[in-house]
Write a structure and sequence with these properties.
single chain, alpha/beta, Quinone Oxidoreductase, Chain A, domain 1, Rossmann fold, 2 domains, seven-stranded mixed sheet, six-stranded parallel sheet, 9 helices
């Protein structure tokens, strides 16, 4: 089958990306479905796969991709055959439940990521447990693929973990990426005032077009004073961040008393220096979050299907232009999701 592959690990990732036409076709195992891909979106995770993030468990050449929408073509043993022919959207986070052992307390589920720990969606077909596929009917596959993982990640981080409520003041860093834009859409759905940051003025301008209340240009300085000026020196109730080390100090200093710092990533590094005095004195909360379960997936996808929240799509590519999609992702030039349309021959 046709596929956009990562031939080997290395930096830059683009040097190892190749479009092929002879990749082995997958087949559905027990409890799984084989999906004919209509659209697949890229995430920063695809770069981590290409660079060899610790914990990556893929055989190279590998197919990454954790956002896929398509039509079920076949099912494995134990799966109701009436699934065949239905359009579905993937939740790539598959729960891994530890077996019960005497004398050992159970721990919360770890996850197996399709596209990170096993073959993903950047091919003509992919497989997934039927329990991780959500029927989405006659929706636009491009929009659905652009919506999935980013909005699930943002929903869990903001709603489940941080306790987002209507009317909060929310700071979103690094606007332009999928999770940041998903966070902006969710904040607007809750009627929140938003402040967004970026190193690029043009991305801030785009964010204002999409309803961002305030914008802050990140020049590599401590911009927390600007955030406080925009909030009458109060600070924000919630900071949503995936940038990490480079801006952690500004994020913490931007929080109001009782505020929450929520993180789902650290693209500039994990070893941030924090301010414990500010954390305990201002009674701040720091919460981590990653992906989301099927309950949360159903919640946020219901808002997509109703039209309440829409994804931002930067560009759509033919499969043969897969290298161009990776190039734009690796350069950080996108504003919104990069999507591959597998319906293009």
């Amino acid at each position: 089958m046709r596929a956009i592959t990562i031939q080997r690990q290395g930096i830059p990732v683009l040097a190892n990306v190749a479009f092929v036409t002879d990749f082995p076709e997958p087949s559905a195992g027990a409890g799984e479905a084989l999906v004919k891909t209509e659209a697949a979106a890229l995430n920063h995770l695809d770069l981590w796969v290409g660079r060899g993030l610790p914990g990556i468990d893929l055989k190279y050449p590998a197919i990454s991709g954790s956002d896929g929408c398509g039509v079920i073509e076949a099912v494995g043993a134990g799966v109701d055959p009436t699934w065949i022919g239905r359009r579905v959207l993937l939740n790539a986070a598959v729960p891994k439940v530890d077996p019960a052992r005497p004398g050992v307390r159970p721990t919360p589920c770890d996850i197996f990521m399709i596209g990170e720990h096993g073959p993903g969606c950047l091919g003509e077909k992919f497989t997934a447990p039927i329990a991780n596929l959500l029927e989405v009917g006659d929706c636009d596959p491009i929009a659905a693929a652009a919506f999935g993982l980013a909005h699930l990640t943002a929903w869990r981080m903001m709603v489940s973990q941080a306790g987002l409520r209507a009317g909060m003041q929310v700071l979103i860093t690094g606007i332009g990426g999928g999770v940041a834009l998903a966070s902006l859409g969710i904040a607007h759905h809750f009627g929140c005032e938003t402040i967004v940051t970026s190193r690029h003025e043009w991305k801030l301008a785009e964010a204002r077009k999409r309803g961002a209340t305030h914008t802050v240009l990140d020049k590599g300085h401590d911009w927390s004073k600007e955030v406080r000026q925009l909030t009458a020196r109060r600070g924000v109730d919630l900071c949503v961040d995936s940038v990490g080390k480079a801006i952690h100090g500004s994020c913490i200093k931007s929080l109001a008393r009782g505020g929450v710092f929520a993180t789902c990533g650290a693209t500039t590094g994990p070893d941030a220096t924090t301010d414990l005095t500010r954390i305990f004195w201002n009674q701040l909360r720091l919460v981590g979050s990653t992906m989301g379960d099927m309950r949360e997936f159903r919640e946020v996808v219901s808002l997509f299907r109703s039209g309440a929240i829409k994804p931002t799509v930067d560009s759509v590519f033919a499969p043969t232009a897969g290298r161009d999609a990776f190039a734009r992702l690796e350069a950080g030039e996108q504003f919104g999701k990069l999507v591959v349309d597998w319906r293009i021959g």
